[in-house]
Specification:
It is built from two helices and eight strands, in the order βββαββββαβ. It has 112 residues and is of the alpha+beta class. It has a single domain (7-97), classed as Alpha-Beta Plaits (2-Layer Sandwich). The chain is globular.
Length: 112
């Protein structure tokens, strides 16, 4: 698979405890991105954060608040493919934030 120089980045901020069909939502999103043949996806687990649902800060430092830490899912591909993917997953995200931005693709290559 090759990518144009001008790509886009879909960034999803969700809670690690969000679920879809009994599994973590971030995991379901990545599997769906793979099925949709999107160029790549990465999940980052936040160590601290807050959002629209709660202004109280969640952090790993306080064991009681360590649940529901933020997770960021980043997916890169062409604009049209990401827009279609976002339409597909939109109603599965009960709480979170999605951003969409232009990204200049400098390298996209696999091993071999």
């Amino acid at each position: 698979m090759s990518l144009k120089k001008e790509g886009y980045l879909l960034r999803l901020f969700i809670g690690e405890d969000e679920k879809h069909d009994g599994r973590p939502l971030f995991e379901w999103i990545v599997y769906q991105a793979s099925k949709a043949d999107l160029a790549g996806a990465t999940v980052f687990r936040g160590v601290m954060g807050y959002g629209a649902s709660s202004r109280s800060i969640r952090t790993q430092k306080i064991e009681v608040l360590a649940e529901g830490l933020p997770v960021v899912v980043e997916i890169v591909d062409e604009k049209e493919k990401l827009e279609a993917f976002m339409e597909f997953i939109d109603d599965k995200i009960n709480a979170g934030l999605a951003t969409f931005e232009k990204a200049e693709i400098r390298i996209y290559r696999g091993k071999g």
